[in-house]
Amino acid sequence: MYVSRLVRRIAPVFRLCHPGLQRDLDRHGRGMITATSKNEAMIEPCRRPLATSSYQYSPLIKKTLSIKDKRSRPRFAEDRKSTVEPVLAPDEAKGIVLRPSTPEDCRAIYKCLLAHAEWEGCRDLFKITEQDLIRDGFGANPIYQCDVAEAHDESGQTSIIGYGLYTFIFCAWDGRSALWENIFIHPQYRDLGIGSILLHEVTKRMYALGCRTVLGYFDENEIGLKRWYVAEGYESITKKHNFHLYMQSGKKLERYINQDGKNDEYLSKASSRGIHIKSIISKND
To answer: N-acetyltransferase domain: from which residue to which, for each copy (predicted)?
Structure first.
């Protein structure tokens, strides 16, 4: 009797995971396989739940992800915390102005950046200061641009409720390009389309300044953010061109630049062929 009940309980699971089955969802949520090839059928049960918003409430999915990488940022909204400061309430705001940032905005931008890092679960990776923003955005050699969304009420009170931070880069094939570093909208003002408007307006400015390519990146676990970028016309260059982004930072970068004799082997090899290499690249500019 017990064996019979057990078989009835595991049979739907077996049918779900069996390669090659083609079934639609029934009222119990079973039979999600739609692929016909063996490989596709094996990965489909993992792919299909992640394509819907219900995946984040699945205890099995949450447990699996937490076991896989306990050090990664929280992947689910209910696990995230942020100390984002209160701003002018949406029902009190009479208008929102999108404008270039000023040095006086850096304190508010810094607080938004910090809140975003906390929301992403990456507070320990947040290293910059308000002074860094002022120096690198408004100093003698600015290396980033930032436009803000500012809400205001009838009395003239204002609050920065979002920003778009980006840099200009040079592509060896396309020339001047722009890279989105961060777009943030205060939680109270989300789902109003402000992020899309900001993205569009700033992109028009990038284009007017000569950029013919605009890049961005995001965490692959941010399913909603991925859909947003795709809806705005972005495409994955990883899929299209098989490009990958690499980086060095922190202690690893320090070890790399401070390696004694790092180039001795290469210098000797060139010297043995009568080629003498000398670097006059300044380290202070």
So the answer is: 96-252
Q: CA distances (Å), 278 to each of 78, 114, 196, 275, in order?
A: 56, 43, 50, 10
Over the stretch 97-155, which tens digit does the pLDDT of each residue have?
A: 999 999 999 999 999 998 888 877 788 888 999 999 999 999 999 999 999 999 999 99
Statement: the pTM of the whole predicted model exceeds 0.90:
no
Q: Which domains does the chain have, with CATH numbers?
A: 2-79 (no CATH), 95-215 (3.40.630.30)
On the question of pLDDT at 27 being above 70, the answer is no
The 10s digit of each residue's pLDDT in 167-212 is 999 999 889 999 999 899 998 999 999 999 999 999 999 999 999 9
> CB of 179 within 8 A of CB of 216?
yes
